[in-house]
Design goal:
- The chain has about 100 residues and is mainly beta.
- It has one helix at about 30-35; strands at about 10-15, 20-25, 45, 50, 65-70, 70-75, 85-90.
- The strands form 2 sheets. Strands 2-1-7-5-6 form a 5-stranded mixed β-sheet.
Length: about 100
């Protein structure tokens, strides 16, 4: 479990992860907020549905993919938080709609 070292003067924000509020601060990424949750996994693999959590934190491994504000397969390690942002964990295969 990770915990946040607070930056002096950073603005407190609220991010919703699977509909539940989570605290965040300006300047941090969605992946950093996910890692502080009880369940840090942001997605499951498409075939075996193994849980995956943010790993490299620099956009190389793609283990941090989640649905951010309705956009699937967003790299959360590269996405800064915004107040009111909605994050949903991405489970299994993505469905493609016409």
């Amino acid at each position: 479990m990770f915990r946040k070292l607070h930056e002096p003067g950073a603005q407190a924000l609220t991010v919703y992860i699977d509909g539940k509020p989570a605290t965040a601060e300006t300047g941090e990424t969605v992946a950093a907020v996910l890692l502080r949750q009880d369940t840090p996994a942001s997605r499951t693999t498409p075939v075996q549905e193994s849980p995956r959590a943010p790993y490299c934190m620099m956009g190389v491994c793609f283990d941090c993919l989640a649905i951010v504000d309705g956009v699937a397969s967003t790299q959360t390690c590269l996405t800064p938080v915004r107040d009111g942002m909605r994050v949903e964990r991405q489970f299994g295969k993505r469905s493609v709609q016409p």
